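User: I'm preparing a small set of examples for a lab meeting where we compare how different chains pack in three dimensions. I only have the primary sequence for this one, and I'd like the structure in token form so I can line it up with the others. Please keep the answer compact; I'll paste it straight into my notes.
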Amino acid sequence: MNKIELDALMMYLDFHPGKALGQNFLIDNNLLEFIVRTAAPQPDEIILEAGPGFGVLTRALLATGAKVRAIEFDHRLAAYLRENIDDPNFQLIEGDACKVPLEPLVPLEQPFRSIANLPYAVSSIFIGRLIDLPNPPVQMLFMLQKEMAQRLAAKSGTKNYGALSVRTQLLYKTRILRTVPKQVFQPQPEVDSALVLFDLLPETPTLELRNKVSQIARSVFIQRRKMIHKPLSALFTQEAALAALKKAEIDPTFRPDNIPVADYLKLAEML
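Assistant: Understood. Below is the structure token output for the 271-residue chain.
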């Protein structure tokens, strides 16, 4: 769908995009083809999509034979999708991707993926919910705000490195595939975007250990300018914190953003 077609459709439906909802619709068919070609969906595989909008990406995924389960918050768009996508492989869930129970939508043991042009307003929460699943996606391919993409892919020792970087990279090899100019969306967002690929690592920690890493990362990065032993002592005790840091061979004077993901995992194991 190009800009002229989208503008005509929105006019026909008397639809006005909500800025607060991050409704910026993809109008570049070359980029759409790149996303689908990169994802290479397989027939009958389950793909979870959040924020399908007018279904441009949804239709392209369905055309490959994939089973798409899409979560749409806007009731106007949900009504449009119900009326205009007639495919047995399409399941629409009308609701908030930040709140809708995800586990009933994805198989407990069968692999699935998540592919979406994520609304900026839900991206961090939705990704956090996916990585907290007992059975997280084997791959995620998301269009994200460029700043968010840089945070997710950031390495320790950089200003963008934070709790979400740690939680994501604990499970995924995270790569920014390409930056995307604002001109490929209608209406245009105020910032550029990036297409990010997340590949599940061959070996991942247990859910219990992941939860412990998340608890530690969230707590220490709230006070990212302090030496790590201070927020860690507040979360546990000073004795337990210092003992765990010593066993994990982490300098207690380091700040949270100087500690790589692997060391956060070791720290969680010691605690």
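A couple of notes for your slides: The chain has a mean pLDDT of 94. Strands lie at 25-26, 46-50, 67-72, 90-94, 112-117, 139-145, 172-180, 185-186, 193-200.

User: Perfect, thanks.
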